[in-house]
Amino acid sequence: MASTPRLEIEYCTQCRWLLRAAWFGQELLTTFQRELGEVALRPSTGGGGVFRVEVDGVLLWDRKEQGGFPEITALKRLVRDVVAPDKPLGHSDV
Fold it and tell me: In this structure, what are the phi and psi dihedrals at residue 15, rounded to the nearest 5 degrees?
């Protein structure tokens, strides 16, 4: 049996981004409920505004590299391309 992907959102606790991370996680788990095996929120206490999204160790979004937070539709497309490339996303594909 193949293992299902693990999505991880690392967020800065000093910046108080827990709710943002939880909302992104909820949206992604709702969209990819069959494709994702786990969605984990990982607090980062190092400061510096960390907000990173990975699937099985593959970096999909880094706030510092991309210069901000992703739109949820863009993040869904990035996750889809890794976990379910043939899955239609409806309005998020536009």
Answer: -85, -5
Superfamily of domain 1-68: Glutaredoxin (3.40.30.10)
In this predicted model, what pLDDT tens digit does every residue of 2-29 receive, in sequence order? 589 999 999 999 999 999 999 999 999 9
pLDDT tens string 55-64 = 999 999 999 9
Three-state secondary structure string covering the chain: CCCCCEEEEEEECCCCCHHHHHHHHHHHHHHCCCCCCEEEEEEECCCCCCEEEEECCEEEEEHHHHCCCCCHHHHHHHHHHHHCCCCCCHHHHC
